[in-house]
Structure formats: C-alpha cells, structure tokens
Amino acid sequence: ADGGTLFLDEIGELPLEMQVKLLRLLQHGELEKVGATAVKSVDIRVIAATNRNLLAMTEDGTFREDLYYRLAVVPLMLPPLRERKEDIPELVQNIFRRLKDRHGMPELTLASNLRALLASYRWPGNVRELENVMERLVVLSNGQQVTEQDLPESILGQAAREEGFHLEIPEEGISLESVEKELLLRALQKFDWNQSQAARFLDISRRTLIYRMEKHGLRSESDVDDLAATP
What we know:
This protein is 50% helix and 7% strand. With 231 residues, it is mainly α. The strands form 3 sheets. The chain has a two-stranded parallel sheet. Helix 4 packs across helix 6 (126-139). Mean pLDDT is 85; it is low at 224-230.
C-alpha cells in the first residue's frame, strides 16, 4: 500500500500487540517486515472502520488510547440503514443490477411493491444483510420477476405486523402504560393466550412477556376461573 491507501475493517478487533505495531506505523511511517533486518519507510493513508465504540474500549483497556487519537483525525459517523431509509431504494436498484450481471440474468425484474417492503424493514445487519437478501432473491428466482412471495419470512413477518397495527395519538396525550397493556392483550388474544407465540410475535422473551403480564394484571379467563375455584 506504499503510496496509496490502506483500509482496515473492524479495527476494534485488532489485538493489543498489533495495535502497538500499527501505532508505530502511524507515528513514524515505518514498519519492519517479517524476516527483514532493516526498517522500511512507507507513505500511506489509513482508513479504519468499526461498529464498536472505540472510545469506550479505551476506558476498559481493550483499545489503546494513543492509537484511538491517531486514527480519529477525521471521524465519519455512518447511521445504521434503518435511520436512512431514503437510501434503500437506490441501494436495492444498484445491488440488483450488479447481481443480475454477475449471475447472467439480465431480464430479471423486481415487482413494483418490493422496494417499499424492503425500505420498511429494519435491516439489523445493515448493507451486508441487504446484499445477502438481494443475492438470495436473484439466485433463487424461478421466473422473470422477483415478487413479494420470494422475500424471506423475516421481512414479510415484520411487514405483516406493521400493516395490522395502527395507533392514533390523541391531542390530549396518551398513557404509555395503557398502550403497552392493550398491545400485550391483543397479542395474547391473537394466539389464544399462548405465551411463547405471543412473545415471538412481540419480539420479546417469554420471561419478559410474563413479567409485563404480571405488571398489568393480565390473565386469561381460564386462569381467572382457576383462581376463583382455588379454596
């Protein structure tokens, strides 16, 4: 990379002993190749990326503070994909075009409603997850068009949940406790008070569901009858 740019991805995973060597390179522009007997001077620009909080890592001793300040000359914060949904349609189009060329499928098209569904998904894996989903759609497509039915269940499931839930915010305000109670009640009733299914539907653990049920005093009619019959 001498005379050019060195990109270091996931810099937060670099072991401490390697951090020392990288710091020397950044401070003095020198490195020593394995097996070499002399130090070599290099002129490089370093770009590093991470999804971890490096400043917090310096406080717990897992990342060198001096290296952090050497790297953080021009920090660029890239928000997660869910916070810049306006970028998703263009990303989808560019990735789709590239994958069609790679797999020799120039005639393949995307259904018109697919971009809206993809834009509404939260994308916890960010652009990497989007690329993987798009490649799956291209590789596994059976016809000339990718449709809603080709989407993974995770995306379709979230879309179905959001489509079926509507919340009106009154001008005079609203009680968060009452909203949570109503949402829990609807989810439990939807699955005939099956706690495991209701917890999966709400994307919480069963233990959390039970805690919140007890908090709001939610019980099925059969549970109430059993309590009434207990001497």
